[in-house]
Design a protein that fits this description.
By secondary structure, the chain is of the alpha/beta class. It has helices at residues 16-32, 76-89, 96-104, 115-119, 141-153, 158-164, 175-187, 207-210, and strands at 47-48, 59-63, 69-73, 135-136, 139-140, 165-169, 194-195, 198-199. It has a domain at 56-199.
Length: 216
C-alpha cells in the first residue's frame, strides 16, 4: 500500500505580539534610565593612567581655572539632610520652599550671603555667571558645607564616603585655590578623597607598563 504524502506548507509565525513586547521594553528602559547630570562647568582636568570609574552617587567639588569652586551633592538620598543641616548650623533661615528649590538645583555656586537671592530667581543662572563658593583662608565656606556632609554621614561607613568625595580641577587652575579646598577637607578631618582626571594609556616601557598592578 503506497504511503500517503502529506503536502508541506510554509510555516507562518505571527510576530505582532513579540514586536509589541520589544517596543514596550525599549520604552521602559528609555524612561527609567537615569542620565548622568551635567557638571557645573566644563573643565579640563589633568591626565593620568588611572581608569577607576567615579561612583554615580558622588559629592563633587569642581574647581575652575579662574579659581571658583562649585559643589554638587550627587547622593539624592542625603542631599536634603545636608541642606537642612547647614541651614540650621549657619542660621541661613531658608524657608521650606527655598530648601525644596535648593534640593532640586544641580550644583551650588554662591556664598551663603547670596543664597536667598539666588533661590529667588525665576530662572537659574548658568555657572559661568556665579561667583562660586568662597574658599579663601578668611572665609572658607566649602569647609562649612563639608562639615554638614560629615554630620549627615556620621555613623556610616567612612570608606564609602571617601570613595564618594571627588575633586575635579581644571589643569590651568593655580595651586593656592586647590590648597584651600584641601584645607576644607583637613579642617573636617577628611584626609582621603579622589582626584578626577582624564584617563590615558600607560606609557609603553614605563614602570607601570612593565609591572602592572595585580587584580584582586
Amino acid at each position: 500500500m503506497p504511503k500517503v504524502k502529506i503536502p508541506r506548507k510554509s510555516t507562518s509565525i505571527d510576530m505582532t505580539a513579540m514586536c509589541d513586547v520589544a517596543f514596550l521594553l525599549l520604552s521602559f528602559f528609555i524612561l527609567a534610565t537615569k542620565q548622568k547630570p551635567p557638571e557645573a562647568l566644563s573643565v579640563s582636568p589633568p591626565n593620568s593612567v588611572s581608569a577607576k570609574a567615579a561612583p554615580d552617587k558622588s559629592i563633587l567639588i569642581t574647581l575652575t581655572k579662574d579659581g571658583r569652586s562649585f559643589l554638587m551633592l550627587g547622593d539624592e538620598t542625603k542631599k536634603a539632610d545636608i541642606i537642612n543641616n547647614i541651614n540650621a548650623a549657619k542660621g541661613l533661615n531658608l524657608t521650606a520652599a527655598e530648601i525644596k528649590k535648593l534640593n532640586k538645583t544641580l550644583f551650588i555656586g554662591v556664598p551663603f550671603s547670596q543664597l536667598k537671592s539666588f533661590l529667588s530667581m525665576a530662572v537659574e543662572p548658568s555657572a559661568d555667571k556665579l561667583p562660586g563658593i568662597p574658599t579663601d583662608s578668611t572665609n572658607n565656606e566649602m569647609s562649612d558645607w563639608l562639615h554638614s556632609v560629615t554630620n549627615v554621614y556620621a555613623g556610616s561607613d567612612q570608606r564609602k564616603l571617601q570613595e564618594m568625595l571627588l575633586v575635579k580641577g581644571d589643569n590651568a587652575a593655580h595651586y593656592p585655590a586647590f590648597k584651600q579646598i584641601k584645607e576644607a577637607f583637613k579642617k573636617n578631618e577628611i584626609y582621603k578623597f579622589r582626584i578626577v582626571t582624564n584617563g590615558e594609556a600607560v606609557p609603553v616601557g614605563s614602570e607601570l607598563y612593565l609591572n602592572p598592578p595585580k587584580s584582586n
